[in-house]
Amino acid sequence: MKQNVKLKGQLRLYMQWPAIMILLLAAMDIWIFKTNRKAGMLMFAFILVYAAVVGIMYFSNKSLLFADLVEFAAQYGIVQNTLLKELSVPYAILLDDGKIVWANTQFREVLGEDTIRDAHLNKYIPEMNQSVFPKEEDATVSLEFRYNERDYQAEIRCVSVDGLNETEQLMEMPTEKNYFIAIHLQDVTELNECLRENEKQRLVAGLIYIDNYDEVMDSVEEVRQSLLVALIDRKINQYIANTNGIAKKLEKDKYFVIIKKESFEEMEADRFSLLEDVKSVNIGNQVPVTLSFGVGLSRDTYLIGYNYARVAIDLALARGGDQVVVKNGQEISYYGGKREQTSKNTRVKARVKAEALREFITAKEQIIVMGHKMTDVDSFGAAIGIYRAAAALEKKVHIVLNDISVTLRPLYESFRNNPAYPEDLFVDSREAEELADEGTMVIVVDTNKPKMTECERLLKLTKTIAVLDHHRQSDEVIENAVLSYIEPYASSACEMVAEVLQYFSDDLKLTPTEANSMYAGVLVDTNNFVNRTGVRTFEAAAYLRRCGADITYVRKLLRDDMASYRAKAAIISSAEVYRDVYAIARGQHLGIESPTIIGAQAANELLDIEEIKASFVLTEYNGKIYVSARAIDEVNVQIIMERLGGGGHLNTAGAQFEHTDMERGIEDLKKTISMMIAEGAI
User: Fold this and answer.
1) Cα separation of 671 and 667, whole Å?
2) How confident is the prediction for the chain on average, in pLDDT?
3) Where are the beta strands (DSSP E) in 3-134?
4) In this structure, how many other beta carbons lie within 10 angstroms of the beta carbon of residue 425?
5) Are 613 and 582 within 8 A, CB to CB?
6) Which residues pair with 146 in a beta bridge?
7) First to last CA, the chain
8) Any idea of the CA torsion for 351, 355, 357, 360, to the nearest 10 degrees?
9) Residues 495-529: pLDDT tens digits?
């Protein structure tokens, strides 16, 4: 057996080097022999003695050398095993199902003293299960987890052991799973704590605007105005100072704020109590002070964070103020907004927007007007008002209208059957896309979300876009609009258009048919002048009355037929009261043409029930479930609908579910309400 053992590699060369020297000495002896025979013979004798000694030492020490090599290998294996076992890096070898085959001391210390041999790793660390293990040879997966109040980063590697079954007599593995899972852990607790601490110390930019500065100042005596300003400044500065931040007053109603990320998280936790604190300032002012707070977070530069803050404050103001908007990259969060913005008596903004709209229309050859999908009376009336403005400038006008509801049909027919209006006044989305060209201006009314428009693609076919809307703005807006007139305090789009028309042209005059359409829009959106009406709402209604709006005719147009009335009664009868103050009703299999309109009407009527703060009606229509949400003043249904992907106003909002499972829709609505109550958002 020993004779079959042979040396290989560098060790064999090392052992055979004396024999190679014999050949070199022999060559040298030949040269010496030719020079001097006597010296050559002497050298030859020396070589024979040297060869004999080398041969004896090689063959006699070979067995001893092998013994020493075996002993060294054994000792090396013990040392290697000890080093691996005592290695400061936690290391383990697993089978493909997560069963621990071998683990060093550090790994078992991580798991704990009660570690069971041959146990599955996911028993201790649930994140370390079979689903996260790599399946391909030499593949590596990184995973972070927390265990025993420590943070770890694991590197999981698939180690192939092909040929193990042929060479290993103690273990046999399935052919298709001829690999181990090797895992080593790195404790990153201190690193994560440093990162978290660094994140807490990161500076955050913010802008605070007083929404109604002029109105508040006008509501107090002149001698008290300086005191009121001082109290507001104190509230803001004290709130920011309590979080170790800096507040710098830029203008009479604007502040620049710098705070730490840690302080921002504290503000976020108490849902920015500054909004309510400022409202408590009262020295005789009849109008409570409201603030808008825009916060920008960026990991890149402070300039980007400041720009985010500017975007956030603009969005907060566009949504009606009295709220905090946080922009963190592409993510936008909203807080507050529970109070309806007070209507401003000044019409300067309406006049400026009217003049700008006139200039843009004058520069274009063709105007296309469109509202939101499933056009309602308000959207239709606002579109008619824009038609009259463009027609007064002798421009070709088209109104995009795809679906005509039962409520809208009488108004629609009054224009279709009137020879005073062009036959191509109303077009569908396909026709509008064909008409659009470089000389076309698109005017969007009663919505500011591109996905809600009648023809979203039309927004990409023209560069000149104007938006007139009374809904609160969200993070999804129509981009690149040359004119954006969004006033959340307005009761309806028809009210806004009526104001614009009064400043558009001195000789502009609405026809009675057009005035009826716009008056009907105001009437529907205010629920017969009950909801969200202000001084300017009645002024707009008075203007429409002067233009010939017939109140009796409009009332007859908006009456329901018997089937619709019964459907409304069925919806109301299905209502359930959730958490004592929220009425939730459903509309299924109603058998009417426009169930969503009846659902909205039912939601309004549910508010007439005592102790009901908000009503929600879910209506199935065209493969979707439409949610109509209504409130009076105590609940902001807009932020509830935004959680469900919708939007609207503080007391009038809506959303859609992309399915027809009514029970699932109601369950999602209830979960959202419960979650927001727990968060303090409602």
Assistant:
1) 6
2) 85
3) 91-94, 100-103
4) 19
5) yes
6) 151
7) 88
8) -170
9) 999 999 999 887 888 999 999 999 999 999 888 88
